[in-house]
Task: structure prediction
Amino acid sequence: MSSSPALSARGSRLALLVVGLCWLAVLFDGLDMFIYGSVLPHMLEERALGITSGQAGDLGSYATFGMLVGALTAGTVADRIGRKKLMVSCVALFSLASGLCAIADGVTLFGLGRTLAGVGLGGLLPTAISMVSDYAPRGRGALVIGLLMTAHHAGGILSAYVALWIVEPLGWRAAFWVCVVPLLFVPVLLRYLPESLSFLVAQGRTDRARELAARYDVALPAAPAATARWENLAGLFRGREWIQTLLYWLASFGGLLLVYGVATWLPTLMRGEGYELGSALTFVVLFNLGGIVGMLVAGRASDRFGAPRISAIWFALTACGVFLLSVHMPTALTFAVVFLTGVFLNSAQTMIYATVSIGSAPANRATAVGWTSGMGRFGAVFGPWLGGQLLAANKGDWGFTAFALAGFSSMVFIGIAALRTSRHEAAVSRGDKDLIAAH
Result:
């Protein structure tokens, strides 16, 4: 039975509330993730906590390592306590961890704060995606997920303005105190955010799930089938599938190395190229604005031309853009290059996930995407560390070149994977034609 227009309008408004709450949570996630890179030039300039360039890279990697732990454990924890409680816990964790960074009297305590913040950051995003998928208006699931991803980049923009307006007059600690403010958002989530429909169905609480689905005028998720996770993982390596799997993993490694390496070191590297702090932070704003545009453009382009092709082209253009940043150009031209690099870089990695999802069998699609993302997280850990080591060795001018090579390598790996897929599909098509001819 179809829902009445009045119920549909009311359900859409309620669903918009859920999506809006998740968007704000991811905004705070992006703020906390990018704030370290935004205040890092100031910290290095005043030798805050006695920090060196090498230690700065290590500290950047601590957060991404925490994100790896958070992302890998989020599913298991959410299955036990629920998506809503996990989201609330993640927001509380990265907010309190930022307070730990603000009061740190040494590198060790600061590093612990960044690691704990990373755990919260890594657990929040996949959980928020699950929540908006459950409550998205009918037929708008892909759209709201794309909109949700823009919040992460909006947080990056906010971090640049926090650094620009607060760090200079009040010091770097004030920026991390700002990142504690999302703690005030926790009671709002507890009060207004409903539990995930998928979790309720999985727990057998179908009456409550039906009640919420009717209230929000959204589809009730199907009960999850029992899956053999390790069997699905083994399926990624059967026959010659292991080649395709490794190509995806390597492309994801290079992509996230590039994403988090640039996110951490962009302001510092731009200052090393002779730009003032204000200009360097403007690059962060433009980079993340480009990310928002890229997320909205890449999906449509991939639907028309294919996700593997767009991912490979996007990585090639990213590599060119990142390499050009090592050349001191007129400021206006540099602004344009940073913006376009943000457009291509941030969505190129997302198209890897789309490629894996489209090319995987339904039975092991979630496993394939999850492990591709997980392996890529090691690149996210390595990227900030690499930038720090280059600066510590007084080879900061090689930073952009190293990140450009990472983008080029991802282009090669995803390109080879796409070619192998095309050849396999062509062989299958020829086999089908021969079979038809034989009949």
User: Anything to note?
Assistant: The chain has a mean pLDDT of 80.
